Amino acid sequence: MSNNIIVAIDGYSSCGKSTLAKALAKKLHYIYVDSGAMYRAVALYFLRNNIDMSDHAQIEEALKNIHLNFHSRDYETHITLNDEEVSEEIRQMPVSEKVSEVAALKEVRREMVKQQQRMGKSKNIVMDGRDIGTAVFPHASLKLFMTADPSVRAQRRYDEIHLKNPEVTLEDIFENIAHRDYQDTTRAESPLVRAEDAVILDNTNLTPEQQLQFALERIEALK
Ligand code: CDP
Ligand code: CDP
């Protein structure tokens, strides 16, 4: 049995999961995996190739043709879709609007979970997403469930992207976040739900440094 440390971070959209996961990985020299980037890259492929999401054979065929790879540099997420760097494109609104629908497909989830579990086989890892503590690593060493006030989350995301994407309004972002949270929590296949043994981290009033401290203390307590 392997005894590598797995930190699972789940929670609602834009509540600081990847900020925390990256900071932890950097501090502890763990591998960081952004599972959302994988679903986003699959959604990009589905968009580009007009995949009919009611056609199971088409979905299976698409999944066979999708090859994802992470290139970790400075703990930032760099992901390729069939050898093409798509890290920027997967953050744009068309993908954000499609991703939760694609992520609800059981064929897609089965394949992504399989790949994610492989990544956690032997290395210390921090993975963030929606089902990491419930489906991907139900025996994770530490599970955190993150949340924050929805308007604070929308404002943070807006501050992050509005210089690059001035056409996107705060209302667009708020609606997208609310819609994705709804889809993610109500889908049939591994919906977003707090694992019973997950520690809740509400960071509405916390800085990134404070949330890092919170998590480090819990990891220290594992030793
Ligand atoms: O925008 P944000 O960083 O909150 O989302 P993300 O982590 O990039 O994930 C994008 C979408 O992928 C989510 O809204 C979910 O629909 C889906 N996802 C999922 O279903 N399971 C995961 N483990 C990670 C993401
Ligand atoms: O990964 P997730 O979608 O949950 O969120 P994120 O991309 O880590 O964080 C969304 C935005 O909130 C980023 O711009 C972070 O810098 C910011 N943030 C913050 O201002 N305060 C925190 N305590 C956590 C995140």
UniProtKB/TrEMBL annotation:
Ranges where the Cytidylate kinase domain occurs: 7-219
Enzyme class: transferase
InterPro entries for this protein: Cytidylate_kin, Cytidylate_kinase_dom, P-loop_NTPase
Domain of life: Bacteria
Cellular localisation: Cytoplasm
SUPFAM superfamilies: P-loop containing nucleoside triphosphate hydrolases
CDD domains the record matches: CMPK
Residues engaged in binding ATP: 11-19
Keywords from the named record: ATP-binding, Cytoplasm, Kinase, Nucleotide-binding, Transferase
Family: Belongs to the cytidylate kinase family. Type 1 subfamily.
Name of protein: Cytidylate kinase
Naturally occurring in which organism (per UniProt): Mucilaginibacter lutimaris
Taxonomic lineage: Bacteria, Pseudomonadati, Bacteroidota, Sphingobacteriia, Sphingobacteriales
Name of the encoding gene: cmk
